[in-house]
Write a structure and sequence with these properties.
With 379 residues, this protein is of the alpha/beta class. Helices cover 44% and strands 17% of the residues. It is globular. 43% of the residues are buried.
Length: 379
């Protein structure tokens, strides 16, 4: 099977991680996989191509300037031809729109994965509305959570075109016994960490608000924010205004996450909206108890009171109380981490890829049947 993934990216985050995991596992299954990544001058610090090449993936930059770049369409169409693509798999609205237009007339099966419609600005809402119309022309749309699947159906996409497939990770990267573990230093601070792109969707302001409340009660705690994004300067100012700048470390983006998680005692995700975030799976695979919000697929992934704690979104006090309850008990943290490592086995990249492969094979079979019917009609 020869598959081309097409993704519009602003950095190597959740959706990009899914594409990389899927592409690598498909390759291990002896399928041919190519990845097309949009690049433009408005996002000069985008590291997606670099990170995917580190994984030895066959990556093709697609230069795209402006709202509708005819040269980008030609590049995608040429890539489909040169790679002898049998199936086009797109990710994020820009890739959906360009991929659909580039594939017109090619009788190529089309599949898209909807990771999340963020609707974080008026322009993005317009593009995502256009995306919902374009997706009706696709053969199959994968949602990474049941709430996203329901949202897709509510836009008018036929029910039979929508399927939910959970995200998956390479569990071995985060659970290997050789990874260094956090030293048990009773005198050192406990570390509460979060990971994500620094945008409003991730609720980092609520994380900082919770940190302020925790430090009012328990001083020997350090907070780490791993990631980068357009809101970083504002979040650093917020930490200063809250008087906790000396207890919050902004690490910036990191490409060594399997080594970062073991430095945490608790993992927190304060998102106000999500699909199925890879970072929670990675944290659980690393043996961490998690505190996260009840958005997207997180209530399905995290068994509250067993593998972590769930709190309402946009509630810094509830977040702080949940974190404090875990800070008070090393035993509870340890037990939740152990049970989380067991539970997350359901979210391996191998299982995810087998589910996608089943969809791919169904689409290719249907496409072959259509080609046979056309040949018989024209005979």
């Amino acid at each position: 099977m020869n598959v081309l993934h097409l993704i519009s990216s602003e950095g190597f985050y959740g959706a990009e991680n899914v594409v990389a995991s899927l592409a690598m596992t498909l390759r291990q299954m002896d399928h041919s996989v190519h990845v097309g990544v949009f690049v433009n001058e408005h996002c000069p610090r985008n590291n997606t191509i670099e990170e995917m090449r580190k994984l030895s993936l066959d990556v093709h930059p697609i230069q795209c300037e402006g709202r509708l770049d005819h040269r980008a369409l030609c590049s995608i169409r040429g890539l489909l031809r040169d790679t002898k693509t049998q199936l086009l798999h797109t990710h994020v609205y820009k890739a959906d729109i360009y991929g659909y237009l580039a594939a017109v007339g090619l009788s190529l099966p089309l599949i898209s994965t909807c990771h999340l419609w963020t609707r974080h600005s008026r322009l993005v809402r317009i593009y995502e509305s256009l995306d919902s119309l374009v997706l009706r022309g696709f053969d199959k749309i994968v949602a990474v959570s049941d709430p996203i699947a329901q949202q897709l159906r509510q836009t008018g996409i036929p029910v039979g075109k929508v399927v939910t497939i959970d995200n998956g990770i390479d569990l071995s990267r985060f659970s290997a016994s050789h990874l260094p573990q956090r030293a048990a230093d009773a005198s050192g601070p406990l570390v509460v960490g979060t990971v994500g792109r620094l945008v409003s969707q991730k609720g980092m302001d609520y994380f900082l608000g919770a940190a302020r409340q925790i430090l009012d009660q328990k001083l020997n705690v350090l907070f780490k924010i791993v990631g980068d994004g357009p809101d970083r300067a504002g979040l650093e100012r917020l930490a200063s205004r809250l008087g906790i700048a000396d207890r919050v470390i902004f690490t910036g983006g990191r490409d060594d996450m399997p080594l970062i998680y073991p430095s945490f005692d608790i993992f927190v995700l304060a998102s106000v909206d999500e699909g199925l975030p890879m970072v929670v799976l990675e944290a659980m695979a690393s043996g961490l108890p998690v505190v996260t919000t009840t958005v997207g697929a997180l209530p399905k992934v995290v068994d509250s009171g067993v593998t972590g704690l769930l709190v309402p979104p946009r509630d810094a006090t509830a977040l702080a109380n949940a974190i404090l309850s875990l800070l008070e008990s090393a035993y509870v943290r340890q037990q939740m981490g152990i049970l989380g490592k067991v539970a997350v086995q359901e979210y391996s990249s191998w299982r995810m890829t087998l589910k996608y492969l089943s969809v791919y094979e169904g689409l290719l079979t249907a496409a072959g049947a259509r080609d046979t019917d056309r040949a018989e009609v024209n005979a």
